[in-house]
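Hey, I'm writing a tutorial for new members on how sequence and structure tokens pair up, and I'd like a real worked example in the thread rather than a made-up one. If someone can provide the structure for the chain below, I'll link this post from the tutorial.
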Amino acid sequence: MLSGIIVIVYRRYLATTITAISVLTCTLTSPVAAAPMHVTNLRVESVLKAWKFPVGNPDGYFDQSTRQALCAWRDLAGRNVTHSLPSIRERFMLNRAVRPKVPTRLVVGLNVNIACQVVIWIVKDKVTGEPKIRKVFEATTGMSEFPTRTGTFHIYAQRNEWQESDLYPGAMMYRPKYFNGGQAFHGSATDALIVPYPASHGCVRMLHRDIQELWYSHVGIGTMVKVYGHWS
């Protein structure tokens, strides 16, 4: 009689244990469906700004400069290069705030991305010696009739003053840095001429403050330059 009671109690204990294990297993292996976290425009802009991409003051509005920054990020991250708004996947990628590595195809120096209308400034890390992104600048390259020629060059001459173009009288260049014939990085008569599409006569137009930063940082003769991509 006593042995029968023990058997019944043991069976009930075993059944309870199996049920508990089954519930625990389901809890561990079946994730609870949850609403996806929304990565805001402001968060995307803040991450890009922290990496020194040209988004201006983060305000949650994707203006043209922010789209140029997104385009540059896609280029560096090995994604399709477009000026479109970020997808949900791209928002989550940016939310992780993992700085993209420098592709081996870029040079340590100034990289002109025609598709994005930006200049990507690459330097060597002082500690590791590895290339890293110093900053990304807005830029305007040559229009279709006067394209900025693609290829790898170096800055071979520069003028620390205003200079009038020899080819286009009245066209003023602010502190130009020449890298391929008459093509140069320079500021223009007004920053309003730096637009997010090809519009120059072949030079790479940049904002006055950005040209000043290159001068103050001693980016000069001998600095490598790569021009690549195409506008579409």
